[in-house]
């Protein structure tokens, strides 16, 4: 590759990876946390969800009563029932209601039920886990600026940028084999970061490509594909939906006896013999009712296996290729969700996904740090030292501050004392408040190195504090409900991550290592008298 | 169409024109590659044989690679004007294909 092309490629790598590096870091870091927030931390954060039961009892009567209550509020567009399972040990019912007397106002009602007593369980409406997942998926983009769809699009852009940064990064590195094994920790700060960036980047390439691709498909493509389809169907959206989803069953207006929810639970998957996890129901009580059942996916890489049955007769209904997941592209598309969130291999895989996701966040942060270092202490900078110092502090404040804010949410979850209706707002204030304070803190300390070190230490401290508080406030006999093993695992994980953060903070330097110190260390290592000038690298 | 909408469209077109003139590679990466990808997708769906819903799924999978490939080409090609010219021409050709093709559905 000629020099000019190499430089252009490097410019594109810098542009895609560094200019938007902080944004990429936010998406990657929140994604790592979202892996656990999709399941494990949901039970951890809400003691009401920590249930143990011997066997679930029939649910149909309670369900029918609940549906009748909801029907008084308007027309139910769809219902769903989730059966108790390990990460959600309770029945969950949901109704999406077109409110009576309104043109287009809808309400979504969710109710959880004890699996044995069938008493309604009051769980929190707003949760820390939901916040962490939504922040990764759509940045909690405000409705007045376009809402979730716009947020998803922006996060999806991170997937495209990531793929571009990976492609240009691979092209830029011509000595891949050598660089994959080169870690020179005894050299300058820049080389240390550069080697770490390259080694983690090269070894993690397959995972990073996968996460970038699946992220792009889940985020940006789901918004742009309709635009493409809109052009191809020249505005006929009904035709587009029918092509993609297949013909929709309309309600007949004739009442009919439905299959019991309890009977549906006994419909085992023909291949795996497993019971359904949940069912989504359209036109409940109508002769044309449709039950969409979801079974655990153990044979295929997909979130769930789906079967559609007639709600009256129980006969299996035809499904589109997308619903069946029978064609190659539909199987690839169905695989993007579990691949992206690591939901297909148990908790061990989630830990792997967490660390790999975190490594991606570290790479992006290192890329930005190297870019600043080259300009502040190398010969590429055109701005003042003060400017680059400020940029470095901002980078530390945003990146490490995000870790502090996330750890802060765990503590907030345990010490929040206000009304449940205000919990959601309080979560938002805590998250952004701690983040902003961390950014300010990075500017107040003597330098970015010290700020980074201390913020990582604070993160570690908060994680350990959250675990201790959880044990004291919700688990131990003093005020708790007794030891709950999955919760204990999360507490131990928090302690482990907290200790790792503290160890990293202790290891990191409080200021930029001076060149002379590096030279002296090199001289000592090579047994060269320190009075002799060691050649610069 | 209201004068306000026409005004916004004209302003956007002029803005993209100036930005393409001033920074052909960067504008191509940021704007033309995205537009070309959307138009490539539309043109392919309208003209590829086979089941439309399956083609849509294939497109969903190919979309990120087409987009990133076009962005990469913008900095790979030695001539910045060939990049910008190529992207604009590609978008114009694809627009014509989408316009003259029989709508689906």
Descriptive account of the structure:
The complex is a heterodimer of chains A (537) and B (105). Chain A is of the alpha+beta class and 537 residues long. Chain A contains 19 helices and seven strands. A seven-stranded antiparallel beta sheet of chain A has the order 4-3-2-1-5-6-7, with helices on one face. In chain A, helix 16 runs antiparallel to helix 17. Chain A is globular and about 80 Å long. Residues 528-537 of chain A have low confidence and may be disordered. Chain B is mainly α and 105 residues long. The model of chain B has no long low-confidence stretch (mean pLDDT 90). In chain B, helix 2 packs antiparallel against helix 3. The interface between A and B is large, with 43 and 35 residues.
Average predicted local confidence, pLDDT of chain B: 90
Spatial separation of the terminal alpha carbons of chain A: 26 Å
Side by side, the strands of the main sheet of chain A go: 4-3-2-1-5-6-7
Helix content of chain B: over 70%
Backbone shape of chain B: globular
Please report the number of helical segments of chain A. Answer: 19
- Order of helices and strands of chain A, N to C? HHHHEEEEHHHHHHHEEEHHHHHHHH
Based on CA inertia axes, which overall geometry of chain A fits?
globular
The poorly predicted ranges of chain A are 528-537
Radius of gyration of chain A: 27 Å
How many individual helices of chain B? 4
Sheet with the most strands, sense and barrel status of chain B: none
